[in-house]
Amino acid sequence: MIPILRKEFIVQRTLILFYAAATLIFAAQFIPVDEPLPIITILAVFFTFGTAAHEDKNNSHVLLNSLPVARKEIVTAKYVFHIAFGICLVGLTFIYRTIIGALPKDAAMWQYVIAVTVIVWFVSVFFPMYFWIGPRFVQIGMIVLLIVMFTALPMVYNLGVKHNFWGIPDFIQSLPRFLLFVFATAVTIVFLIVSRLISVRLYERKQF
To answer: At a CB cut-off of 8 Å and minimum separation 6, what does 49 contact?
Structure first.
């Protein structure tokens, strides 16, 4: 799996540097008003869509499956690479804001945890759908994501602000943080494991 991860890094190194620079720009632009984490999370999402589209365009799957590597390792490497990349973007934001003296408070730290969790859940949904539907999922997914970002999401957010998000934040804050963290982590790990198993089964059935 390590050679596959190295290959992913080498092939995507220019794109990785671009996203890292964009992360620093957004981290700087949102100081000291708001946390830039929603946009950083969206960057990680776009990176996954973009790399999948690039692989389909260059038929990278054919090359990968010509190597003496198990398909299970290929799938696992994709999960590790994209989750690690998302965590790195969130971590880069945290480090930058710490260096400039904008270290998040305890409440803000949860935003970083939520950002990582959202990235893990997205990857866990993306790859089973991608291996099942194929390149069309990437094309449709990008269009749907853009529509949701610029139309539905702002409307839902403004409606949530108007109604104080229907008391959900207050309910979450009323729960013991440790138990909430353990529960959320356990559910996320289980979902990730199930997602990987489904992706492996779907990928092993594909013909290249």
So the answer is: 126, 138, 141, 142, 145
